[in-house]
Specification:
By secondary structure, this protein is an alpha+beta fold. 44% of the residues lie in helices and 20% in strands. The chain is built from nine helices and nine strands.
Amino acid sequence: MNASAVSPAGPADYSVEKRMARTAAVTLGWWAHGAVRLLLAVAMLYYGVAKLVLGQFGVTDMGDALITQGEMSPMGMLWRMVAFSPLFQVLGGLAEWGAAIALLWRRSVPLGAVIAAGSMSLVLVLNLGYDVPVKQIALALLVMSLLVLTPWVPRLARAFLGHGEIGKGPLPTLVPWRPAARVTNIAGPIAALLLVGVVGWGMSAMYPERSVDESAPAGVWTVQEDVAEPAAQLHQDTRWSALAFGEVEYDGRAAVQLRQANGELLSGSYDRTGPHTVELSLGPLREQGQPLQEHSAIEPVVLTLTFEEQADGTLHLTGEGQDLVLAPDDSAMVLYERGFSWGVRADDPFNR
């Protein structure tokens, strides 16, 4: 009997099996890498579009003018700072949106991962510094960015350290068989474009319609005249001392704040119910340590007021037991009217 007829597989067969096992392991690795990459891209799209449409932080409005720095929470300060600058929001959104686009195309994956890691590093620092309650999400997205970048780390290290030749980088390959790969090479970009469109449309539709109405009573006002008598003690005096009506409306409602003589600040929203009438919905600020559900359960105070513009620029406000004359507070409008200029002004630098 020929011994070779019953001998185990030869070196050639073993080599083929080894190559197949290696190909399978690499393919599984790229599939795991692709799953992390897809989740990261969706998250970057979500947050990027939210900033591009000025939805995540909103826009600065004079209806928020009466709150003082000491009354703000760290997160509230950050939100107002970012809301003040649409440029900051749009650039941040472009970085996150651009990272997502790069992550969805396999030849630009390392670029997307680097941009995502840089963006999430900044977001994590801001979340830590201003006590934003999504620190864990920012950290998770940063770790995911670094995981996606891992296959290209040796090349990046050589590029930064200047040691050795920088060779050709790896290319994510989910399907190692060329006939099927030709199909996925076409279907992948189409699916990526559909994903970008669906997430973009969904995020754009998620936020209420925004419009601007600069007509009265929009503005910041101080009480110039009040027919009501003051209370015996200041802490008991609930007369109104200042009001701020916003001009940026979301589905017809804008922000409003009311400061009482005793210092208490009420905040909420208002809508224009007629040519000279407004309806305010006001509530107290959320206290430190107060659960959100408890604060949300507080029934707002609803006030219906009538206003009339006077020839001297004041506003006569009546209703709900109030009879007031309001005067524009120019000092409280500096933040909203300052604007931007390349040229040097007489009052530059203006820091107060």
